[in-house]
């Protein structure tokens, strides 16, 4: 792959919306053309070169293009929004909407990511080495359909409403989550290695949610359905002994949602 390197120019005060940091948009462009791509800062339209030093030219196609952001960009939003191919590596933290509506390719964030990461994602892979904010893989406000394909991996923790309205794909969290993870989930797989606070799978009608740690407050619409060792979900085997719950009966008489909770961590909940 042909690499384009972006080096942030110091700190940013007003957040920058930079959907143009995308292999689909960089493809076929020279360094000068990339520098002149337009980003938004508040009501102003400004060239990308106002915020980044650019090194290198892009590949002839998105699939041949790798974008490397050399540093923290915690006030730059929408990196990789809607990307279809190629690769983005952020060598630090990013702001909101990284990988939102992503269709293909891969994004690696070596630090933390803001809220709405992978929002309504359709394909590709998004890997966040650090922590993530609220609404990862979720639906837009007012929409019922969240991510429906692809894979999101978070090595650290995620905050609330992870996978809201999820209709397909996978989310794996190495740490813990907060409130209402998997709310309105109807398909797909979410695996949380750590703990969850409350509302896991609330209004869930399908899909599978696995919590390997403790659920502080189980949603009342779930019914106990036995115990399973090393359950298999599609091609994914989850190691351990789990209590299995079906739900959410609070919203449907025939729900197809499955919630697995670690037996050791949750007996007596």
Description:
This protein has 269 residues and is mainly beta. It is built from 3 helices and 21 strands. It has a 13-stranded mixed sheet with strand order 5-1-6-8-9-10-11-12-13-15-21-20-17. The protein has a 4-stranded mixed sheet with strand order 4-3-2-7, with no helix packed on it. A two-stranded parallel ribbon has the order 14-16. Strand 3 and strand 4 form a beta hairpin. The chain is elongated. The model has no long low-confidence stretch (mean pLDDT 96).
Topology (SSEs and partners):
Blueprint: E1 2-8, E2 16-17, H1 23-26, H2 31-35, E3 38-41, E4 44-47, E5 52-55, E6 65-69, E7 76-77, E8 87-90, E9 106-109, E10 125-128, E11 148-154, E12 167-173, E13 187-192, E14 196-198, E15 208-211, E16 215-217, E17 223-229, E18 232-233, E19 236-237, E20 241-247, E21 257-262, H3 263-266
Parallel strand pairs: 1-6, 2-7, 6-8, 8-9, 9-10, 10-11, 11-12, 12-13, 13-15, 14-16, 15-21
Antiparallel strand pairs: 1-5, 2-3, 3-4, 17-20, 18-19, 20-21
Summary keywords:
3 helices; 269 residues; 13-stranded mixed sheet; 4-stranded mixed sheet; mainly beta; 21 strands; 35% strand
Mean pLDDT: 96
Helix content: under 10%
Number of helices: 3
Q: Which structural class do you get from the secondary structure elements?
A: mainly beta
Radius of gyration: 20 Å
Alpha-carbon distance between the two ends: 51 Å
DSSP summary, beta strand count: 21
Largest sheet: number of strands, sense, barrel closure: 13 strands, mixed
Question: What's the SSE pattern?
Answer: EEHHEEEEEEEEEEEEEEEEEEEH
Low-confidence stretches: none
How large is the share of residues in beta strands?
Answer: 25-35%
In the sheet with the most strands, the strands line up as 5-1-6-8-9-10-11-12-13-15-21-20-17
Shape, principal axes of CA atoms: elongated
């Amino acid at each position: 792959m042909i690499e384009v390197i972006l080096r942030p120019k110091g700190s940013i005060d007003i957040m920058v919306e930079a959907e143009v940091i995308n292999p689909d948009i960089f493809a076929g462009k020279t360094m000068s053309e990339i520098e002149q791509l337009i980003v938004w800062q508040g009501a102003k339209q400004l060239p990308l070169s106002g915020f980044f030093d650019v090194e290198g030219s892009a590949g002839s196609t998105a699939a041949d293009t790798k974008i490397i952001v050399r540093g923290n960009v915690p006030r730059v939003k929408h990196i990789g929004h809607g990307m279809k191919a190629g690769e983005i590596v952020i060598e630090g933290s990013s702001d909101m909407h990284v990988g939102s509506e992503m269709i293909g390719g891969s994004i690696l964030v070596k630090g933390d990511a803001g809220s709405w990461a992978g929002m309504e994602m359709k394909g590709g892979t998004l890997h966040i080495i650090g922590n993530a904010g609220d609404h990862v893989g979720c639906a837009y406000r007012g929409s019922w359909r969240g991510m429906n394909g692809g894979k999101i991996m978070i090595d650290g923790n995620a905050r609330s409403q992870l996978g809201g309205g999820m209709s397909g794909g996978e989310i794996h969290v190495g740490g813990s989550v907060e409130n209402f993870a998997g709310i309105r989930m109807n398909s797909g797989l979410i695996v949380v290695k750590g703990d969850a606070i409350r509302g896991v799978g609330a209004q869930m009608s399908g899909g599978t949610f696995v919590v390997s740690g403790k659920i502080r407050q189980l949603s009342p619409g779930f019914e106990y359905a036995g115990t399973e060792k090393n359950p298999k979900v599609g091609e994914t085997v989850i190691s351990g002994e789990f209590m299995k719950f079906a739900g959410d009966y609070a919203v449907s008489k025939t729900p197809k949602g499955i919630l697995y909770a670690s037996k050791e961590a949750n007996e007596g909940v």
